[in-house]
Amino acid sequence: RPERRERQLLFQYRFGAPGRLELTYPAAGSRGVGTMRWASTAYSGGGEMQIQFDNGGVTYVVYAGMYRTGFGADGKNNPVDELGVLALRSGKVISRRKCTAAPVQGGAHD
Fold it and tell me: For residue range 5-60, what is the model confidence (pLDDT) as tens digits?
């Protein structure tokens, strides 16, 4: 009977312009095992996913969520997608950036 192995996914977060990356985590060639944390939750009419990691005294939270904001006059749900990155130092938000473009392929909203 073959050994059962957990599926291992590799993930790397990159921030910056093409050819001018400001942050790459984990660094190229590093597997970053155990350094990233994943969380997800379901909401009525949506849900949220997060990947969190620490780098240089800053905690980064990359998130993607769909939230129901109410119902229109026609009774249809009015969902809103929000994607972005929070940077926290000592638990306080020092930067909040919302994505304005579609997420990369392979993401939750493809």
Answer: 566 566 788 888 888 988 888 877 666 655 788 899 998 778 999 999 998 899 99
Instruction: Tell me how far the alpha carbon of residue 47 is from its chain's centroid.
Output: 12
| CA neighbor of 61 nearest in space, from 78, 49, 71, 47 | 49
The DSSP-derived string for 29-88 is T---TTTEEEEEEEETTEEEEEEEEEETTEEEEEEEEEEEEEE-TTS-EEEEEEEEEEEE
C-alpha closest to that of 85 among 70, 110, 109, 65? 65
Tokens of 9: 């996914």
How many CB atoms are closer than 10 A to CB 79?
A: 13
The pTM assigned to this predicted structure is 0.70
Q: What is the pLDDT of residues 49-71, one digit of tens each?
A: 999 999 889 999 999 998 887 77
